[in-house]
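Deliverable D2.4 — example input (structure tokens):
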């Protein structure tokens, strides 16, 4: 039996953007654009009348901004939402706030001259979002940093995508100030990643920043791939260092989780690799190479994943040794990086 296409409602005050999104989605048989709205008040009535499966929602709109509408929507009638935001400093902060409020993903709005290439991944993203596991509204469980941690010398590499902002905030909240050195590749536009690093820096115990070329990996640091034109890699040698390598997209992504994971194969026995929520398969093959080299490898479980794509791919090919629920992930990582006499029973 053929599956019915997912019903999409476009909410944006720009007729140009609404028309562009329609044009991008029209050829895809998995999706049906059932309507569009120029502001949240129109959107509210169309949601009632059309019963969409997923929304695209502009951040900046007249009469009511997208964040205010998103907060009301997630509280009163939760729906999967993909936010569309300008990649300015203000837009990037708004994008992260939208993800914290429950949006499944946030993508950058195209700038003049780049309309032809805009929204290339939007169809896949909307299909994934329509089937995403929405976070329940309300205050999230507070996680306190671990105490009494003695490091055994292992490095931690983490890959994440759709749903990763919330997942990373939850995981890193359990990190102590003297955490194992940790590198993270999260699929996001460059400006969003810079804002995300700043947001995390004020919320977690370890030192948090964008990765810098040649920076040594030391205990108590967490570094996020800056994206843009570069992939984040682990440079060989002692001490291990960050390397930002310019290159084309790998598997459709830059930064790529597979690139990060494969760069650590020479030190696999001293590595813990983790795949969190996200659509697609980025990171699975790289994790398998790491595990075959002696790394310890974990994947987020299905129940706590917004989109169980990347973790599922890793588990299916035997790259991840086990699935771990998000609330227990930081403890699982720290146990693998703990000196033998301080490991959990």
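Example output (designed residues):
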């Amino acid at each position: 039996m053929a599956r019915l296409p997912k019903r999409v409602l476009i909410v944006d005050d720009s007729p140009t953007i609404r028309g562009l999104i329609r044009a991008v989605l029209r050829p895809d048989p998995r999706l049906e654009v059932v309507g569009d709205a120029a502001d949240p008040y129109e959107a509210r009535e169309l949601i009632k009348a059309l019963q969409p499966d997923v929304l695209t929602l502009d951040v900046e709109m007249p009469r009511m901004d997208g964040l205010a509408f998103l907060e009301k929507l997630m509280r009163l009638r939760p729906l999967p939402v993909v936010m569309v935001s300008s990649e300015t400093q203000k837009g990037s902060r708004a994008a992260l706030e939208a993800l914290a409020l429950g949006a499944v993903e946030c993508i950058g709005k195209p700038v003049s001259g780049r309309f032809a290439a805009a929204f290339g991944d939007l169809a896949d993203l909307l299909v994934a979002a329509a089937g995403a596991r929405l976070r329940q509204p309300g205050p999230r469980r507070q996680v306190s940093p671990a105490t009494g941690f003695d490091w055994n010398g292992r490095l931690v590499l983490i890959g994440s995508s759709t749903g990763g902002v919330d997942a990373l905030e939850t995981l890193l909240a359990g990190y102590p100030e003297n955490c194992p050195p940790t590198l993270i590749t999260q699929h996001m536009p460059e400006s969003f990643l810079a804002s995300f690093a700043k947001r995390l820096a004020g919320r977690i115990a370890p030192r948090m920043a964008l990765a810098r070329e040649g920076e040594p990996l030391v205990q108590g640091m967490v570094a996020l791939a800056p994206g843009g034109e570069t992939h984040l890699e682990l440079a060989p040698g002692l001490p291990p260092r960050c390397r930002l390598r310019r290159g084309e997209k790998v598997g459709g992504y830059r930064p790529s989780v597979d690139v990060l994971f494969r760069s650590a194969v020479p030190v696999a026995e001293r590595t813990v690799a983790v795949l969190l929520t996200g659509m697609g398969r980025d990171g699975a093959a790289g994790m398998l190479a790491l595990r075959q080299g002696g790394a310890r490898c974990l994947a987020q479980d299905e129940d706590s994943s917004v989109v169980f794509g990347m973790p599922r791919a890793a588990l299916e090919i035997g790259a991840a040794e086990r699935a771990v629920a998000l609330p227990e992930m930081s403890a699982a990582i720290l146990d693998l990086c703990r000196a033998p006499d301080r490991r959990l029973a």
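The mean pLDDT is 91.
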